[in-house]
Write a structure and sequence with these properties.
- The protein has three helices and ten strands; from the N terminus they run H-H-E-E-H-E-E-E-E-E-E-E-E.
- With 202 residues, the protein is an alpha+beta fold.
- The chain has a domain at 82-182: Rieske [2Fe-2S] iron-sulphur domain (Rieske Iron-sulfur Protein, 3-layer Sandwich), CATH 2.102.10.
- Strand 9 and strand 10 (174-182) form a beta hairpin.
- It is elongated, with a radius of gyration of 47 Å.
- It starts with 24 loop residues before the first helix and ends in a 20-residue tail after the last strand.
- The relative contact order is 0.11.
């Protein structure tokens, strides 16, 4: 027969479960100082550090470039005023505009010879356009008109366009010098017939 122990009436039942183990003091301290950081927070901090480093390096780079810029001053390279344009046989009768963009000149051959017109309107310095259908130069700025020899006949231009100095070099090519110009001032003698203003018998 099993041995049973009778509890007196009204007595509280005994707790037979083992008592819960309490954390030691060392474990509590470790839990306080061993808190792990949030991974999202770590990524945010890393991004901020990269941003700050990029800003600092960018600022230093810009300052370095500005410092080096002083050693390379701005220089405007003007086109050459003296150059060759080919042989006389390269030009037929009429106006040749192929040098207008690079040298701002027109090469003209007529019954007198070959001469070079400087493509600058004598009104306010614009570049006229050659109009083959109308056989004239027309300034797009204020409407000045010039005939095929650069002589003004309409609009506000006060005088004909200037001509550049031309000569033949040892190889027989035409050399143009736009720094030496021939003009026809209003009411004065024309320089277009001077030596160097036109190449005759070519």
């Amino acid at each position: 027969m099993a041995n049973t122990t009778l509890e007196p009436p009204g007595a509280a039942p005994k707790n037979t479960a083992p008592p819960a183990s309490k954390p030691s003091l060392i474990q509590a301290i470790k839990s306080i100082f061993s808190k792990q950081e949030d991974p999202d927070q770590e990524r945010t901090i890393a991004r901020r550090r990269r941003f700050v480093m990029a800003a600092v390096l960018g600022t230093l780079g810009v300052n370095l470039l500005m410092f080096l810029r002083f050693f390379f001053p701005r220089v405007l390279y003007e086109p050459k005023t003296k150059f060759t344009i080919g042989y006389p046989t390269d030009f037929g009768f009429g106006v040749d505009t192929k040098f207008q963009k690079d040298h701002r000149i027109w090469v003209v051959r007529n019954t007198e010879g070959i001469f070079v017109i400087i493509a600058i309107c004598t009104h306010l310095g614009c570049t006229p356009d050659w109009k083959p259908a109308e056989n004239k130069f027309k300034c797009p700025c204020h409407g000045s008109g010039y005939d095929s020899e650069g002589i003004n006949f309409e609009g506000p231009a006060p005088r004909p366009m200037d001509r550049a100095h031309v000569e033949l070099n040892a190889q027989g090519q035409i050399v143009v010098d736009t720094s030496h110009a021939y003009s026809w001032p209003k009411g004065e003698r024309s320089q277009f017939g001077d030596d160097g203003a036109i190449l005759r018998n070519v």
